[in-house]
Amino acid sequence: MSYTITMIPGDGIGPEVMEAMQAVVNASGVEIEWEVVNAGEGVIEEYGTPLPDYVIESIKKNKIAIKGPVTTPVGKGFRSVNVGLRQSLNLYANVRPVKTFKGVPCRYEDVDLIIVRENTEDLYAGIEHMVGEDAAETIKIITRKASVRISKYAYELAKAQNRKMVTAVHKANIMKLSDGLFLKCAKEVGEEYPEIISNDMIVDAMSMRMVQDPTKYDVLVMPNLYGDILSDMASGLVGGLGIVPGANIGEDMAVFEAVHGSAPDIAGLNIANPTATILSGVMMLRYLKEFEAADKIEKAVSKVLESGKVVTSDLGGNAKTMEYANEIINNM
């Protein structure tokens, strides 16, 4: 079977890591036609936005996309392309698997958890305004519909992967209405899955306990802001953002992307680590039910990382981006 997939190269190191991902996925034997569309800083001058309509139209047509990192201005300028994609396409579930790989320096062994983050509301709904000249207000939106939907996604994911536990993360002790509603919905959904252990954790306590021992956790489900913070923190526990993939899943379409940023300071040097983008490609293949190809790539990545002989500088080696990708291909 062949697929047409929207590919967004992105900014900074994006085109380099996406080229590596494309080469590895192509070598897996899955037949893909890549429809390349551009978004980010490079198109603002021409289109007046980092997210032109043709990007959204391409994804709606193909139903699946993979993107490189794009630059988001801090405190000014345009809204995040990632937020725009998630809201325009109703990609309600952000999924980030976090696991250790032998050969990647980190403090822990045998970490294998998944953070499921509600993607469409909370403080990231972008509803904010000034109150006079000296105060700003942002509105936190939590709805029953979104909370039930993301909770069901987390439990169905746990069920599909034979995972044992789902932990709802919240701050309902303080935000009794908004986070209280999220927690209530998560508990109600959990009752529908008696075979899975259900519990909950206040977000600050979750942060502490995850640092103490992340191997105790399996699937974590939470509102948008907490998911953004905890998924990056969890990445740091297993070696950094350079090895953690991600996916944004909707009802009938999905966009896959690495967690890390565009790193403009090293763009064009061919030294960027493409592991996270390649593993996002693995997630994409599994979404397409191309399990054999996905497993083949992931096993090759694990082998190359464990060997440590042909890896990028952030992993202790001196390989160029495509040298590393070619080493993965050679091990497939």
Automatic annotation (TrEMBL):
Into which family does the record put it? Belongs to the isocitrate and isopropylmalate dehydrogenases family.
InterPro entries per record? IsoCit/isopropylmalate_DH_CS, IsoPropMal-DH-like_dom
Organism annotation: Clostridium grantii DSM 8605
Any one biological process term the GO annotation gives: tricarboxylic acid cycle
rRNA-binding found in the keyword field: no
- Which residue numbers delimit the Isopropylmalate dehydrogenase-like domain? 4-328
- Cross-referenced SUPFAM superfamilies: Isocitrate/Isopropylmalate dehydrogenase-like
Q: What is this protein called?
A: Isocitrate dehydrogenase (NAD+)
Q: Return the Pfam families for the record.
A: Iso_dh
Alphabetically sorted, this entry's keywords are: Oxidoreductase
